[in-house]
Write a structure and sequence with these properties.
Arc Repressor Mutant, subunit A; 59% helix; 3-stranded antiparallel beta sheet; mainly alpha; single chain; globular; Fic-like fold; nucleotidyltransferase; nucleotidyltransferase activity
């Protein structure tokens, strides 16, 4: 999960005003997202070469809710989408909405299209300078009303853009307002961590780990060892202390190769999702 989150963030961070949205970045993100999937891992980082469909039977597109274009057209459609995603003569919110809808309509991967398609929204925001560091949780507002969102995608496919644009505009307004509250709360969390942990030496492994957490709230012991300049025994002791005091919590059931999350950050992000859902109703 940590690697997948990092990959999606790197996809967003791979662009700026002088660096375009690239197919290679999308493929890298998909590879990291799906490589450990027991069923779909063999297709990770590859455009699909088979027909897929949404809804209906697992064995046939008959009665499917939507059938994406044939696999031999996917490359051409994605090349066209990359050209559109890098234009600078369209209002950015409209561009992001259309690019997202087109991506979901192409459905270029056998699985993982939703997560990559949502990351594409913020990739375009970053490319156009609408954001510089943050990720707008617009997708949380979109899926708060799934029927409205999927209805907007269907009307887009039928040639009517208006419901899609209105849905994105309203979702952006809600996500931005609630994100401002979360941003203020997140600035208070580092002080709470230090209160929870108690006295620690400056420049100790625990001190360095606390400084790392705001930029990497989901991490593994390998992540910490690679970024905290301290002996591994000190790193593990610091992680144990942060776990014992409630700063970190395990995110998997594994005994080895555990992934850890900063509890207060994850709780705030959960609360952000709930607030967006309530505000979108």
């Amino acid at each position: 999960m940590a690697a997948a989150t990092t990959a999606l963030n790197e996809m967003i961070a791979s662009v700026d005003r002088d660096v375009p949205v690239r197919m290679s970045a999308i493929l890298r993100a998909h590879e990291a997202l799906m490589r450990d999937d027991p069923t779909e891992g063999q297709h990770a980082g590859q455009l699909r070469t088979v027909q897929n469909w949404i809804g209906g039977s697992d064995y046939s597109p008959r009665d499917a809710l939507y059938v994406p274009p044939p696999p031999d057209t996917v490359h051409a459609y994605m090349d066209d989408l990359m050209e559109f995603a890098n234009r600078t003569d369209i209002p950015v919110l409209i561009q992001a909405a259309i690019a997202h809808a087109q991506f979901e309509s192409i459905h270029p991967f056998t699985d993982g299209n939703g997560r990559i398609g949502r990351a594409l929204i913020n990739t375009i925001f970053r490319r156009r300078g609408a954001t510089t560091r943050l990720v707008v949780p617009l997708a949380s507002a979109l899926v708060a009303h799934r029927e409205r969102y999927f209805g907007a995608l269907n009307t887009y496919r039928a040639g009517d853009l208006r419901p899609l644009i209105v849905t994105f505009a309203n979702s952006s307004k809600t996500a931005a307002a609630e994100s401002r509250i979360t941003a203020e709360r997140l600035t208070e969390i580092p002080a709470e961590w230090r209160s929870m942990v108690g006295p620690i030496r400056r420049h100790s492994a625990a001190d360095k780990l606390l400084l790392l957490l705001p930029s990497m709230p989901i991490l593994s012991s390998d992540d910490v060892a690679a970024r905290v300049d301290a002996p591994r025994s000190s790193v593990f002791a610091a992680m144990k202390r942060l776990h014992d005091t409630g700063v970190l919590r395990p995110l998997t059931d594994r005994k080895r190769d555990q992934v850890w999350g900063a509890s207060l950050v994850l709780d705030e992000l959960d609360d952000l999702g709930h607030r967006i859902e309530r505000a979108s109703s």
